[in-house]
Amino acid sequence: AQSVTQPDIHITVSEGASLELRCNYSYGATPYLFWYVQSPGQGLQLLLKYFSGDTLVQGIKGFEAEFKRSQSSFNLRKPSVHWSDAAEYFCAVARNFGNEKLTFGTGTRLTIIP
Amino acid sequence: EPEVTQTPSHQVTQMGQEVILRCVPISNHLYFYWYRQILGQKVEFLVSFYNNEISEKSEIFDDQFSVERPDGSNFTLKIRSTKLEDSAMYFCASSEDQGETQYFGPGTRLLVL
What proportion of chain A, given as a percentage, has pLDDT over 70? Predict the structure, then answer.
């Protein structure tokens, strides 16, 4: 069965600083990979996804993520964070065939300081 | 932009009562899902639904749970006899096709007393 590990429970960065959120997955084949963001009291919004092709994917709000098969990782990055980026970030994996239930990581809470 | 909607946003119920959580998926989507998130824990898959039948369900989705698409627009999750441990945020999601992106609703926060 697939699994997702987000090793950082909570990260604090200064506004304007760069950001990298880590995600490692466990799956026998190349999975579908996703990053979702959850703002307080809100639902889950898709930031970006990787299905195949170019391993560096661009998403909304200036986020990007890089799929590294050798490291089983799909880390999320942003060159310069804004106060509005404060939220909970979830990495998720799905099988690449059949009905795609999402398996989520435990999430990383991002705090932005002025 | 089309979005998934859920009602109610919050529901408080007594243990043992039945609750129905409602979702309106994006109109041209064919695959529907329910997930839940217990406070402080990860989002967990409950069930997927396609062509008027369950495609897959997790071990959480026992006989107390059921899903239904009663008409062309709504997708419901029923918990027959709620337990304290059912308290969670319940998210509905839909996707256009198999393997396509799942779009989530804002969730229903259920509190069982």
Answer: 96
